[in-house]
């Protein structure tokens, strides 16, 4: 597995910190943002390959973050990971360009698999764009 940059965006600090550690153990370069504004600000300095994004956060929600990410960095692959989503949210996320939509609880192996697939899509898109 190739090491690639993942940005985890979730307001549940304990959850997202533990997830980042588990992904780093598996060889991924995982960074954390605790809200949408922090995520958007952070990608100005270092653009991740894949973003794992919570849907329901105080302030800017995940769908707005997704909208802005895809507008400014269309090649970033975004996966929604939520405990409070609905079928309508999943449809909106897909329309906005999300690579995937996962409902919590999700096992770490499933998360790693979809992150890898999203990274493969990013590489394929980059190859086509050259």
Structural description of this entry:
By secondary structure, the protein is α/β, with parallel strands linked by helices. The protein has helices at 13-25, 36-42, 62-72, 87-95, 108-129, and strands at residues 5-9, 29-33, 50-53, 77-82, 100-103. The protein has a 5-stranded parallel sheet, sandwiched between helices. Strand 1 (5-9), helix 1 and strand 2 (29-33) form a beta-alpha-beta unit. Helix 2 (36-42) packs parallel to helix 3 (62-72). The chain is globular, with a radius of gyration of 13 Å.
What is shown here, in short?
The protein is α/β, with parallel strands linked by helices and 130 residues long. Helices cover 48% and strands 18% of the residues. It has helices at 13-25, 36-42, 62-72, 87-95, 108-129, and strands at residues 5-9, 29-33, 50-53, 77-82, 100-103.
